[in-house]
Input
Amino acid sequence: MAKARKMTVEAAQAPLEAADQKLVSQPDDQDRVSALAHEFWVQRGCPLGSPEADWLRAEEELRANTASSPAGAAPASGNDA
Output
């Protein structure tokens, strides 16, 4: 029983450690990440729990957009009307 519990605890810690490594948003980026994460959450139907999944997805998307855009150019927000 102790072995199974230890494996469960270790398995639970792995995603948290991965999330800590991926969390790279700076205070000046947090508004953009927050807005995009909110859009993702709404697209998923506003479910309870797991807000970090939307946050990490938003960070990844903004990081990818920033890496692929010319220096100094703002990444597209996807809100063009």
Notes: The helical segments are 2-22, 30-43, 51-68. The mean pLDDT is 73. Residues 28-66 form one domain. The first helix runs from residue 2 to 22.
